[in-house]
């Protein structure tokens, strides 16, 4: 049994997620290692600054393995709403991350009549509302970041760079939503005299967990004295990187208050104990 903790699953610093698990999977290539953060530091440079050598990364690639089991908090409110401590993950939804740039014309906020404006922020704001309205059952769409230029209170915005995060368990539905939101951005830009461009940062297909391992994990939950429950993961996890290489399974732990990506994110100690008990039963199943 080998225990591994992966670095930078989220990709918050470099915009590239799953750096650690990609190394284990052998898919962390030289081009990715040159990806840079906001200060211009590359992934390879950050590794060297930490006293390690990027040239050693190929040695981390996993060899023959029976499979991979990941324990993770749910990062959502579903388990708490059901009164359940644990859930078996049967699928990790696909996700698209893009960057949209709306470009207009900076001008004086006091002297430029509304009808003469090419306000990039107003156009981006209209589009953000459309993104929220596009979300539906099973489809989530989020704009979590806006960069406004020049960013002064008395100047009409010349440029806005907006993030877009779209997720769904059915990749066809996700691709259709991205296409519709891209078309919507272009229509808004044309009507407002703006230019818009889109850049894809990440496109990851949905990943199903190994069906036999899912069944084994479900039996393990029952053996530990809890009601089995299956669900999909709306968040990306390292398991989706390793799933193409070996059988994989995931066990979710209840998130207290359903809160994640926030300082109040936490998990109950009794849920951790329950997860460990399930893990022991799972090893017996194997």
Give the helix level as a range of percent: 25-40%
**Regions with pLDDT < 50 over 5+ consecutive residues?**
none
Number of strands: 10
Q: Provide the succession of SSEs.
A: HHHEHEEHEEEHEEHEHEH
Q: Give the DSSP E fraction (strand runs of 2 or more residues).
A: 15-25%
Indicate the radius of gyration in whole angstroms. Answer: 22 Å
Instruction: State mean pLDDT (0 to 100 scale).
Output: 95
Q: Count of helical segments?
A: 9
- In one word, what is the shape? globular
What composes the largest sheet?
Answer: 5 strands, mixed
Instruction: Name the structural class.
Output: alpha+beta
Determine the N-to-C terminus distance: 12 Å
Please sum up the structure shown.
With 286 residues, the chain is an alpha+beta fold. It has helices at residues 19-25, 30-33, 43-49, 78-82, 120-134, 171-192, 211-223, 239-242, 269-285; strands spanning 68-73, 86-92, 94-103, 140-142, 146-149, 159-168, 195-204, 207-208, 230-233, 248-253.
Your description of this structure?
With 286 residues, this protein is of the alpha+beta class. The mean pLDDT is 95. Helix 5 packs antiparallel against helix 6 and helix 7 packs across helix 9. It has helices at residues 19-25, 30-33, 43-49, 78-82, 120-134, 171-192, 211-223, 239-242, 269-285, and strands spanning 68-73, 86-92, 94-103, 140-142, 146-149, 159-168, 195-204, 207-208, 230-233, 248-253. It has nine helices and ten strands. Strands 1, 2, 8, 9 and 10 form a five-stranded mixed β-sheet that branches. Strands 3, 4, 5, 6 and 7 form a five-stranded antiparallel β-sheet that branches.
């Amino acid at each position: 049994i080998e225990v591994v903790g992966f670095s930078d699953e989220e990709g918050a610093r470099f915009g590239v997620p799953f750096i650690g698990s990609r190394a284990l999977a052998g898919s962390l290539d030289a081009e990715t290692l040159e990806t840079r953060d906001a200060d211009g530091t590359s992934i390879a440079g950050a590794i060297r600054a930490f006293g390690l050598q990027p040239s050693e990364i190929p040695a981390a690639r996993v060899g023959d393995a029976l499979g991979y089991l990941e324990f993770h908090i749910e990062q959502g409110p579903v388990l708490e709403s059901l009164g359940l401590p644990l859930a078996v993950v049967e699928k990790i939804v696909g996700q698209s991350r893009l960057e949209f740039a709306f470009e207009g014309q900076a001008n004086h906020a006091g002297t430029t009549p509304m009808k003469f404006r090419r306000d990039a922020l107003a156009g981006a704001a209209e589009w953000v509302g459309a993104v929220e309205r596009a979300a539906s059952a099973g489809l989530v769409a989020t704009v979590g970041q806006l960069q406004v230029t020049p960013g002064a209170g008395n100047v009409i915005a010349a440029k806005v760079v907006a993030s877009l995060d779209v997720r769904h368990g059915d990749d066809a539905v996700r691709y259709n939503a991205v296409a519709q939101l891209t078309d919507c951005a272009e229509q808004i830009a044309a009507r407002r005299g703006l230019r818009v461009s889109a850049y894809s940062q990440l496109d990851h297909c949905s990943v199903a967990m190994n069906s036999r391992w899912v069944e084994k994990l479900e039996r393990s939950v029952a053996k530990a004295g809890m009601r089995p429950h299956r669900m999909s993961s709306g968040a990306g996890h390292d398991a989706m990187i390793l799933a193409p290489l070996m059988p994989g399974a995931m066990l979710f732990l209840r998130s207290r208050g359903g809160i994640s990506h926030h300082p109040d994110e936490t998990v109950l100690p009794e849920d951790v104990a329950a997860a460990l008990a399930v893990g022991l039963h799972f090893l017996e199943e194997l």
